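Case study 2.
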Amino acid sequence: MSKIIRITGYTPTIPSGSSVETMLIRSSSASLNLDYSNDYIFIGTSVATWNLPNVTSDKKGRSFGITVKNNGTKTLTIPSEGVVDGSDNVLIPVGFSVTFLPTGTNFTILTNT
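Prediction:
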C-alpha cells in the first residue's frame, strides 16, 4: 500500500518519464475548490461546502474523476448547480464517499458508498 505524505516546504522529485496521476488530499477546510484527477478526504468537525471544478469539454472520463470521502463529523455539501445528475446539491454523509465522473458536459455520480 502506498501513502502520499505532504510535508510543508518539501517538493518531491518526480523521475524523468514519470507522472503523478492522482493526488490524495486530506482537508478539514470548510470551503475548498476541488480539481480534476484528485481524491479528497474531509476530516473536519464543522459544516463544509466543497466546490467541483467548472465543466469543460476536454475533461471527460475516468482519468479525470474526483472522489470525495467524508471522514469528518458533519455532512459535506457539494453544490452542483444542476451539473451532477441534475441535482442542485450533493450531500455526502459521514462515512460515505462519492466519485464524480466528468462527461465533458456535466458530472455523473459513478459510485456512492
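DSSP finds no helices and nine strands in the chain.
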